[in-house]
Design goal:
Elements: H1 3-35, H2 45-77, H3 81-104, H4 112-116, H5 120-132, H6 147-166, H7 171-179, H8 182-199, H9 207-229, H10 235-244
Helix pairs in contact: 1-2, 2-3, 3-5, 3-6, 5-6, 5-9, 6-8, 6-9, 7-8
Length: about 240
């Protein structure tokens, strides 16, 4: 999936998510006003259950699925799927609870307390998804401007994935339920505090995580500099290269 198509699908997924989060409530209110079912007690319940219990969750999960699959296809196009695919999957899983929370209460997004509680994995994911929107196609070497830069990106990305695992309280319950392994839930719940201690260097503060996030964003920005300075290959050259393949 090339940059333009990737951007289109990402905007489509974000649009569906915002529709379910911000607009569906107003549409429900308008439907109740136009139908007049509010005049009879309980007459609106079937429609409300359909919208809030079926339509809204379907839109939210569809949006998350579009964002996830578009990112994986973009990574596949750039030949980055084998390392970055699992990393991105962990970031998406760790970010899902905050997305569901925002979808349930859109007003919470404007509250400073909610913004302060955004998972660090979500911030890693947002930075990486933004990076993938740049045109890095044939003739480019994404995320590989130099060996030190590539190593920095990979180490910080692995840290971000581990942070997503360590600081996701729902992980033990979700893993145990999906895999039907209660013992796994216990193991994860016991391991998470130790992993948090390691990742915060024993300080118990999120400052190290944000420092690594800053290094990750800086490395992503630095990897774009050679692409910005280098001349772009012509469209005919790109098509000829694809035909040779």
């Amino acid at each position: 999936m090339f940059a333009g198509r990737y951007l289109w699908w990402m905007l489509m997924g974000i649009g569906i998510f915002l529709f379910a989060t911000l607009s569906l409530g107003y549409i429900t209110w308008l439907m109740i006003q136009l139908s007049g079912c509010g005049d009879m007690a309980g007459a609106c319940e079937p429609a409300l259950r359909l919208i809030s219990g079926v339509l809204k969750p379907a839109c939210i999960w569809t949006a998350i699925g579009i964002l996830f699959m578009a990112t994986l296809l973009r990574l596949h196009t750039l030949s980055l799927i084998w390392f970055w695919g699992p990393i991105v999957a962990i970031w998406f899983v760790a970010s899902t609870p905050i997305l569901l929370f925002i979808a349930a209460d859109a007003a919470a997004l404007t509250q400073p307390a909610t913004l302060a509680l955004l998972p660090v994995a979500f911030l890693f994911l947002a930075a990486f998804v933004t990076y993938l929107m740049f045109a890095l196609e044939d003739g480019d070497i994404p995320l590989a401007a130099s060996v030190p830069l590539r190593l920095t990106l990979r180490l910080t990305a692995v840290y971000g994935a581990l942070a997503g695992v360590a600081f996701m309280p729902e992980l033990s319950r979700i893993a145990g339920t999906l895999l039907d392994m209660p013992a796994l839930s216990v193991v994860i719940a016991l391991a998470q505090p130790y992993l948090q201690t390691v990742l915060t260097f024993g300080t118990g503060s999120m400052a190290p995580a944000y420092a690594v996030l800053a290094a990750f964003i800086a490395a992503l920005a630095a990897s774009l500099l050679p692409h910005a300075a280098a001349p772009r290959p012509s469209r005919s050259a790109i098509m000829l290269r694809r035909l040779r393949r």
